[in-house]
Structures are given as structure tokens and as C-alpha cells.
Design goal:
Structural class: alpha+beta
Function: Ferredoxins are iron-sulfur proteins that transfer electrons in a wide variety of metabolic reactions.
Shape: globular
Keywords: 3Fe-4S, Electron transport, Iron, Iron-sulfur, Metal-binding, Transport
Cofactor: [3Fe-4S] cluster
Strand content: 15-25%
Protein name: Ferredoxin
Distance between the termini: 22 Å
Radius of gyration: 11 Å
Number of strands: 5
Helix content: 10-25%
Strand order of the largest sheet: 1-5-2
InterPro entries: 3Fe4S_ferredoxin, 4Fe4S_Fe-S-bd, Fe-S_cluster_ET
């Protein structure tokens, strides 16, 4: 898990599919931003730059990822 900075807004989210274990915690926390691949169950980022209204859910998803496969980089304010 990486949370770079603490500016307001959701920032930019990315996923390292090599680290992903397919637990699906990201999808549970932020289903509008994350999905799982039907073939291998690994994370798929649906929205790389989520809206401000999705910021809390995205941060929760990054924190909940058991493999640390998600990165959230905050936009400069």
C-alpha cells in the first residue's frame, strides 16, 4: 500500500497486478473505481483519476489491500 501525500481529492490511483493476490477488498471498498479481471481475478483499475467524492472509498481500498498492490498519488493542491 502506498499513500503519497495527503492533499484533498482522490488523486491518481494505480495497481501493480504482479503484486495483486485477487482478494477483492478494493472492489468491496470502491466498486466504481476497481474491478477484478474475470480470467485471473486480479485488480483492474476502472478510473485512474477518481472524483473527489470517491476519495474516501479509494483511500479505504488502498489501505485494505492485503498485498499492497495499490498506489494512490495525491494531486498537488
Amino acid at each position: 500500500m502506498t499513500l503519497a501525500g495527503q492533499a484533498s481529492g482522490a488523486g491518481r490511483v494505480s495497481a501493480d497486478r504482479e503484486r495483486c493476490v485477487g482478494a477483492g477488498q478494493c472492489v468491496l471498498a470502491a466498486p466504481a473505481v476497481f474491478d477484478q479481471d474475470e480470467d485471473d481475478g486480479l485488480v483492474h483499475v476502472l478510473v485512474e483519476s477518481p472524483s473527489v467524492s470517491q476519495a474516501d472509498a479509494v483511500r479505504d481500498a488502498v489501505r485494505a489491500c492485503p498485498s499492497g498492490a495499490l498506489t494512490l498519488r495525491q494531486s498537488a493542491a
